[in-house]
Amino acid sequence: MGTLCQSAELMQDARRRGYAVPAYDTFNYETTRMVFNAAEAARTPVIIMYYADYYMPMQTFADMVKDLGRRSAVPFALHLDHSPDFDTCLQAIKTGFTSVMIDASKLPFEDNIKATREVVRAAHAMGIDVEGELGMVGREEAVNRGLFTQPEEAARFVEATGIDTLAVAIGNSHGVYIDEPELDIPLLQSIHEATDAPLVLHGTSMIPVDQLKEAVRHGITKTNIATEYLMEYANVMVNLCQDKPRTIMQLLHGAHQPVTDFIAAKMAILNPDQIAIF
Q1: pLDDT band at residue 277 using 50, 70 and 90 as cut-offs
Q2: What is the pLDDT of residue 57?
Q3: pLDDT tens, 54-113?
Q4: Of 209, 211, 166, the residue nearest 186 (C-alpha)
Q5: Apex CA 13: angle with CA 8 and CA 77, to 5°?
Q6: Which of 103, 99, 109 is nearest to 139 (CA)?
Q7: What's the distance, CA 32 to chain centroid?
Q8: DSSP strand E in the chain: where?
Q9: What are the residue numbers of the active site?
Q10: Considering the domain 7-269, what is its CATH architecture?
Q11: Pick from 196, 194, 192: which is nearest to 217 by CA?
Q12: What is the pTM of this model?
């Protein structure tokens, strides 16, 4: 039986033992079930994330994840991804999420601190973890090194806000990469040494395997992913339709195992030294 956990609890264990927890934005029952089944196959905890602009009502999503999670065999957490404001975070807290992300990274440094600290105060009063972001992780645009997270600012940001986990910008980008990803591993190592907060890598889709393993070995304890597996899901469905027309039920059934296997293989990368997690 799966256990609902705090995200930071899962990530602190990952930091101590040298692996990373996969975190997936899921968008319906099928994608959520795939991710849980993949986590069981990879024998890893998993964090299921609700994207703030998602069309499914937050309460419906939370109920679905908790039901599937408790029927799984893995520890799991329920996380709000990329909340733009305090009110959305508060809604997730009231709904029963175990962690929330407030993304104020587009604001000036001091304003980011202020907005993030406000969420931390409310969340911690309810026993809920908070993820903040420092630096700028773009979306389908050229990576701007001038917006990378800096170690000294990271340490100050964590201390000033009280966040539990920190999303960093080290060459990662959301969505489809314009250029070949090139993570700044030495910078990541410096950030890791500057703060005890578990570090999060957004935009994990399509990052080369060797870079992803090095990121885990140098401090990344959670990786966010959506684009890559959703593209694989779409490709599998298109291929299923090549030989003959199929109903939506046939497509859902036919795509489940191939996409689950794809996700599980990606999850295994996050345990580069193949430790026994549980």
Answers
A1: very high
A2: 94
A3: 889 999 999 999 999 999 999 999 999 999 999 999 999 999 999 999 999 999 999 999
A4: 211
A5: 40
A6: 103
A7: 14
A8: 21-25, 46-51, 76-83, 99-102, 129-134, 165-168, 199-201, 220-225
A9: 81
A10: Alpha-Beta Barrel (3.20)
A11: 192
A12: 0.95
